[in-house]
Amino acid sequence: MNVRRWNWPLWSGFLLTLVGFFSYISVFLWFPVTRDFPWANLLLFALAAVLLFMGVRRSFVRTDTPRPWLSRIVTSLVAAVGALVIALFVFGFFVFGRWLPESKGAPKVGQKAPEFTLTDTGGKSVSLAELLSTPINGNPPRGVLLVFYRGFW
């Protein structure tokens, strides 16, 4: 008797692929520890890839399904879409991000920064001249370290 069995690794891997893709935008993008390097999404994608592989293997090894050719076609399509989603995320994050043009007006490493006045996290105005003139532990500062975050603030 041919009993149709559900290929749970394939569908679980596909669902985990979608969760990994959309969770970066909806959850992990808002935390610096996962925004700058998406390690949580890469772990989700690795687990999804293993499950997709197990599902494909299960579909092509099993011959007890009533229509094995239809099962293999659906399995191949689902696995290909899952792999494409993973590849698009990796390409978009690691390759496309390097293609962005550099800012023409941003100071280079070691270059003297132009005078500026900004507000700190407490709402107080802070200027570059003030930072360079305010003593730290009784000693005059030798310089100021400026850190530029790439958005999301």
What's the short version?
The chain is mainly α and 153 residues long. It contains 5 helices and 2 strands; from the N terminus they run ααααββα. The protein has a two-stranded antiparallel ribbon with strand order 1-2.
Q: Which descriptors would you attach to this protein?
A:
about 150 residues, mainly alpha, two-stranded antiparallel ribbon, 5 helices, about 50% helix, about 5% strand
Structure in words:
The protein has 5 helices and 2 strands, in the order H-H-H-H-E-E-H. With 153 residues, it is mainly α. The chain has a two-stranded antiparallel ribbon with strand order 1-2. Helix 3 (39-61) runs antiparallel to helix 4. It starts with 7 loop residues before the first helix and ends in a 20-residue tail after the last helix. The mean pLDDT is 85.
